[in-house]
Specification:
By secondary structure, this protein is an alpha/beta fold. It has 2 helices and 9 strands; from the N terminus they run βαβββαβββββ. The radius of gyration is 14 Å and the shape is globular.
């Protein structure tokens, strides 16, 4: 088992505990629905690329590519793994400097003002529908 990155909204200690059992190393950040003491963002270097993990709340409209790129640059990340939209995407910012990855939602949960998406996860930068 490898590295697991989680973009927040665990909502309970039980979910956090279950997630931490998935792999040898997990990195998680605080989502807008979390009360657990997670950091706002995390960084990790993988194959000479700096990955940032950030939930995405506070960015409006949700998933705005330019605003997410500014956050990635502020934490010095080449790749930003983000959530909050609950809809999966792989995009780059207009400058082409930052790769933005959103795994969606493993439960397909409703996403605020947006429609609920398909339950999905991301493996090595490609997203997969669970059902």
């Amino acid at each position: 088992m490898g590295l697991y990155l989680f973009t927040g909204d665990f909502t309970s200690l039980e979910v956090k505990t279950w997630v931490e059992k998935l792999g040898k190393k997990t990195l998680a950040v605080k989502g807008n629905m979390d009360y657990l003491p997670f950091p706002t963002y995390q960084r990790i270097i993988i194959n000479d690329h700096v990955f940032g993990v950030f939930h995405g709340h506070g960015v409006y409209p949700r998933g705005d590519v330019r605003k997410l790129a500014v956050i990635a640059e502020s934490i010095k990340a080449d790749v930003l793994v983000t959530g909050h939209t609950h809809l999966p995407f792989v995009k780059s910012d207009p400058s082409g400097k930052v790769l933005l990855l959103n795994p969606g939602s493993a439960t397909g949960v409703w996403s605020g003002e947006l429609e609920s998406g398909p339950p999905s996860i991301m493996l090595s930068g490609r997203w997969y529908s669970i059902f």
